[in-house]
Amino acid sequence: MISSDRELDALERIHLSQRPVRQRDLARIIGLSLGMTNAILKRLAQKGLLQVQKVNNRNIQYVVSAKGMEEITRRSYRYLKRTIRNVVYYKEALERIIGAAEARGLRRLVLIGSSDLDFIVEHLCHKHHLAYAQVSATVVNPSLANGPDSDGVEPFVLYSENSRPPSAGALNCGSLRFLFSGRPAAAAASAKALREDDEEEMNAFPKE
C-alpha cells in the first residue's frame, strides 16, 4: 500500500528540483524501488497533482500542477501547526521545571549537552531570573565543574535529551530525555483538536 506521505514526498521532491527528475533518480532519492516510484507517479497524475509531459520518445517530464501545489502548501501548514503545538508543550513543561527551581531558591541553570530545546530553556531562565550556561556533555560532574555560588548554592543541572540522564534521586537535576519520552501521552489531549483542524482543511478542498 502506498502511503500519502510517500506520495507527497515524491511531489515535493519534483517541485523542489532545479531540473527535470527521472523516475530512477526519484526512486533513489526517496528510497523506493523503481516499480513503486512508478506507481506513485501514476497515482499522483490520476489525482491531478502531477502533470506528465512527454518530451520525446525516451524522456518524460513531471510538473507539479496547481492542485499539487495546494496539497504541498496544506501539508506544510499542518507540519507547522504540529511544530507549534510541540513547542507549546515543551515550553509549558519546562516552565514548571524551571519555575520550581526558582521557587527552591536556585539562581543558576546549567544545561548539559546539545539540545533542540536550548532556546526555550535559555528564554525561561531569563524569565525566571536564573543565570544560564550550557556546557559539553563530556563534563563528569557538572555541579563541581561549575562550582556553587558564593553562598554555597549549587546550580540546577538540566541534562539534554542527547546526554545520559542523572541517577535516580539526584538533587537539583532534571533531564529533557524524560520530557521527550513523555511527549506521546501528553500530546493525546490535543490530538483530537489537531484531527478536527485537519478535517476542516480537507473539507475546504474538492474531493476526488
Protein model, in words:
The protein has two domains: 4-64, Arc Repressor Mutant, subunit A (Orthogonal Bundle); 87-184, 3-Layer(aba) Sandwich (Cobalt-precorrin-4 Transmethylase, domain 1), CATH 3.40.1010. The chain is 55% helix and 13% strand. The chain is built from eight helices and six strands; from the N terminus they run H-H-H-E-E-H-E-H-E-H-E-E-H-H. The strands form two sheets. The chain has a four-stranded parallel β-sheet with strand order 4-3-5-6. A two-stranded antiparallel sheet has the order 1-2. A hairpin with a 5-residue loop joins strand 1 (50-54) and strand 2 (60-64). The longest helix has 38 residues, at 66-103. Mean pLDDT is 76; it is low at 184-196 and 200-208.
Poorly predicted runs are: 184-196, 200-208
Helix content: 40-55%
- Helical stretch count? 8
Strand order of the largest sheet: 4-3-5-6
Order of helices and strands: HHHEEHEHEHEEHH
Mean pLDDT: 76
CATH topology call of the largest domain: Cobalt-precorrin-4 Transmethylase, domain 1
State the CATH architecture of the largest domain.
3-Layer(aba) Sandwich
- Gross morphology is elongated
Beta-strand percentage?
Answer: 5-15%
Mind describing the biggest β-sheet?
Answer: 4 strands, parallel
Strand segment tally: 6
Broad structural category: alpha/beta
